[in-house]
Design brief:
With 153 residues, this protein is mainly α. 77% of the residues lie in helices and 0% in strands. The chain has six helices and no strands. Helix 1 packs antiparallel against helix 2, helix 1 packs across helix 5 and helix 2 crosses helix 3. It starts with a helix and ends in a 5-residue tail after the last helix.
Amino acid sequence: MTRDKAKPTALHLLLVWAAMTAAMPMLGFWLLMAGWGGGVGAAVPIAALGVPLVLGLLVTTVAPVRTMLPICASLGGRLCWAVMVFVLGTLGAGAGVAFYTEGGELGSAGTRIALTGVPYAVAAALFVPGRQVRLGAVAVLAAATAYGTTAPT
């Protein structure tokens, strides 16, 4: 990766992290409250409205680097990218929730909220062309996996 592409890439990953750190705890909270109060039938409309909104938010975060990411050249490509980042990031966030519910230590509530966006930023980094960014994403993934496989006390 050249130096002139480093700043937009860092901005892009920061935007993905910040957007998902803000959006996903709210979506999760509303899904939990709707499901708790009215069951699955009440949570489905929240998911049907919330997931497309989050995908739209992700599509806007790719604006700084859409010329650098081949998949994001068209609106359909940006939407495809957003869906892939959302799915991969949600799987990563789910792994973090599973680790936490099994007694794993993830820090204070503020730290856990800040960590919410990390799987999405790592997923977004996997789509950035350039060996350094992808290796960094794989290193973060490997470190998180190694930490997650430690036996909770």
